[in-house]
Amino acid sequence: MTVTTPLQELLSLAGKQKCLKTLEGVYRARLTDEKMQKLVRQNKGGTFHLYTHGHELIGVMCGLALTQGKDWGLPYYRDRAFAIGLGCPLDEIFGAFLAREVPHHSGGRMMPDHFSHKELRIPCQSSVVGSQFLQAVGVAKGARLR
Fold first, then answer.
1. Residues contacting residue 66 through CB under 8 Å, at least 6 positions apart
2. Which of 12-21, 86-95, 132-141 has the lowest mean pLDDT?
3. Predicted confidence (pLDDT) at residue 60 exceeds the cutoff of 90
4. What is the pLDDT of residues 105-132, one digit of tens each?
């Protein structure tokens, strides 16, 4: 009789490469969170920080499930892990957090964690909770009309 653990089942279902990519994204999201919090405490960047602790895995997995440049991603303002999973470069995420001019993310004109990326199809976000649902309906309607 062979006994398999839940981790072994997950690896056999998803494949080792996908699991490693997911783990790497979760690790990057957690380290990004910790570094941003340190920068805020040291008064070296960002006036505030929105944690993503506890949401890293689901965010990264949702980002990895989308096809870059084809699918639209409409995250909540705390979904930094989603952006990392979708392939958003960390230097651009930190650039937006530090209000630096970066190719995407409004060049530091928006609040931290209100990122956007044209090529990854992440539109500009609002601070209003739930506003991504209205954008999602608009994207779906536009896709249907095409």
1. 73, 86
2. 12-21
3. yes
4. 766 667 777 778 888 988 887 777 888 8
Q: Looking up tokens 């954008």, which residue turns up?
A: 135
Q: What kind of fold does domain 16-145 have according to CATH?
A: Rossmann fold (3.40.50)
Instruction: Give the whole-angstrom CA distance, residue 47 versus residue 42.
Output: 10
DSSP letter at 23?
H
**Which residues are registered as beta bridge partners of 117?**
122
By C-alpha distance, which of 110, 119, 120 is closest to 101? 110
**Calpha distance 42→46 (Å, rounded):** 10
Backbone angles phi, psi at 145, to 5 degrees: -70, -25
Please write down the HEC assignment for all residues of 25-74. Answer: HHHHHHHHHHHHHHHHHCCCCCCCCCCCCCCHHHHHHHHHHCCCCCCCCC
